[in-house]
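Example 3.2
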Amino acid sequence: MKLIINDKTYTDNSGEADKNSIFVVSKHNEKYIQNAKENGCIDFLNSSELKNHLDMSSIKIIGITGTNGKTTTATTIYKILLSLGFKVALQGTRGFFINETQVEDYSLTTPIQLGNFVHIQKAIQNGCQFFVMEVSSHAIEQNRIEGLTFALKIHTNITRDHLDYHKTIEEYIRVKNSFLSDESVKLVNIDDNVMKYNFTNAFTYSLKNLSDYKVSKYEFEHGMKVEFSYKEKTYTFTSMMMGIFNIYNLMASIAAVHITTQKSLEDICQTLKNFSCVSGRMEIVSLNPLVIVDFAHTPDGMDEVLKSFPNKDIICVFGAGGNRDSAKRPLMGEVAKKYSKHIIVTSDNPRFEEPKMIIEDILAGINDKSNVEVLIDRKEALKKAISLANEKSVILVLGKGNEATQIIGDKKFEFSDKDEVLKILNSKV
């Protein structure tokens, strides 16, 4: 990847480096310095110094981390800011967007360091006042956000995830919490009991505990209506989104925009009225039967989605990704059993694992399997779920969200839960 500033070319790829470029050295590529030299490169720059070469004073960077809710929170902040008349860029799981236009497809939730600077530069060139970005635990641990000054850091929650990489939950928690260890302005969900942060310049939000932005009342009917307080004044907003976890996401979004723009909370809340959901996040695909697609792929994420439908007969379709934290699989099975009338366990993104073995891991968490069916073919699993549905049912298709492919081995095959559901329903008409 290349970054061009004042006719100077910066690259972190030793294969692209030459006598006319500056090789940006980080811990990821320092072993290739000699290769860059052999290609003729004579100028080298430590990645920590890159911030001194790109003027970012005209743009405010908002970074969101957390196990669950990053994408919804980031996207909602982006939408609110656009609705208020700001020019905004968004970088994350769904790709890279500038002012309502998708510029790049998804690659990494948080790009390598030079990639962040390339995107920020594009945002500045397009007149953006805000750059909203998701920050993964990998990015924090690998120092991919080095050199970025955040106008606001947001932490949504910490639950079990990515232990294939971080090895222990303690290490994962440590990495996530390190994002909040400095004196940057930060916004924290204080209902999360494992979160630790530097109190300096900290704002808080919650449903349960005293906080700066405190939810006092909420109800669900055709979406949500939420009442919250800030500095002893009460505000209300409505949204077509569903689920308690989305109240947290929306509160984080409202507070973030309020902190970074100083716009009135009344105006901010008004923008949410017609905002439904993020694609693949509690997305209603069909009303008859009621089918909802969501990205939930951890036990806690599944729990949040499933408990949002206490008055429905839940038909839960899910699997687990291959070559990822296998210890969470029986826990996912346990959660599905707790809430569901019917469970259909299927293949997710098996990667280099056998789908049967992944499913066996999931089934280990389900003692009574009388309401469980295994259909490895995800399309057949969706067909079965639809055949079981009635007016009392909700079909929850979990794990892949808005992903457009299924990863088997090292290949990606076209597959969208939403599209497949619609194909099945249309074939019945």
